[in-house]
Amino acid sequence: MERLLNIHIEKLPEGVYLATSDELQGLVVQGRTVSETLEIARDVARKLLEAQSQDQQLDYLQPIAEQFNYPLVLGQ
């Protein structure tokens, strides 16, 4: 089942993007673009979740709804 993980992305003064999550402790990644940052964050989040105990439930992550809004980032 897919789950929804909220992340926060900010552009740092150095020009790179930093992604963190209040929902998944340890998720701190950076990338050169928003797209790259999201890709790295997805990979790191999977690894962090796999490293958690098998007994630990993922109830704190929301299941994906049938409909939801998603901000689509477009380059110029």
How would you summarize what this structure contains?
By secondary structure, this protein is an alpha+beta fold. The chain has one helix at residues 34-51; strands at 3-4, 8-11, 17-20, 28-31, 62-63.
- What is the gyration radius calculated from CA atoms? 14 Å
Order of helices and strands: EEEEHE
Number of strands: 5
Q: Please tally the helical runs, counting DSSP H or I stretches of 4 or more residues.
A: 1
Return the average pLDDT rounded to an integer: 87
Question: Strand order, biggest sheet?
Answer: 2-3-4
Structural description of this entry:
With 76 residues, the chain is an alpha+beta fold. The chain has a domain of 50 residues. Strands 2-3-4 form a 3-stranded antiparallel β-sheet, covered by helices on one side. A hairpin with a 5-residue loop joins strand 2 and strand 3. It is globular and about 40 Å long. The relative contact order is 0.22.
